[in-house]
Specification:
By secondary structure, this protein is of the alpha+beta class. Helices cover 23% and strands 57% of the residues.
Length: 119
């Protein structure tokens, strides 16, 4: 992928020319190992709309391996020259956070109760 890079205090915006057009990538680098990137995909056109998917990616680069974790965050909807960002709400991710938080509170309450009984 070839592209133009513009950097400003750790913030990096790159416009890359892909097979289907231009793809925008925004990112923040933390050293040489970690980076967060906001990716805007190729447009999908239907019924007078143009829809651009957006995702966030955590990229970890190690000397012997790499890891990329992507998840969708929003879609940009363009119609008649106006653009609107519509967030994607991931109910599965929200449920996992709620389960984890509930489990943590349950463990803390149980540990506290066990500590009170030993006195």
């Amino acid at each position: 992928m070839h592209g133009d890079a513009i950097g400003c205090r750790g913030f990096n915006r790159r416009v890359a020319a892909g097979a289907g057009g231009r793809k925008e990538v925004d990112g923040v680098r933390i050293g040489e190992i970690f980076s967060w990137q906001r990716n805007t995909g190729e447009a999908i056109a239907a019924q007078g709309f143009r829809v651009y998917p957006e995702s966030l990616a955590l990229v970890i680069r190690l000397p012997f391996a790499g890891f990329v974790w992507n998840y969708p965050v929003s879609v940009l909807v363009e119609r008649e020259g106006k653009t609107k960002r519509m967030p994607i709400i991931d109910a599965n991710r929200a449920a996992r956070w709620a389960f984890g938080l509930g489990l943590m509170l349950l463990v803390m309450a149980f540990a506290r109760q066990e500590g009170c009984e030993s006195e």
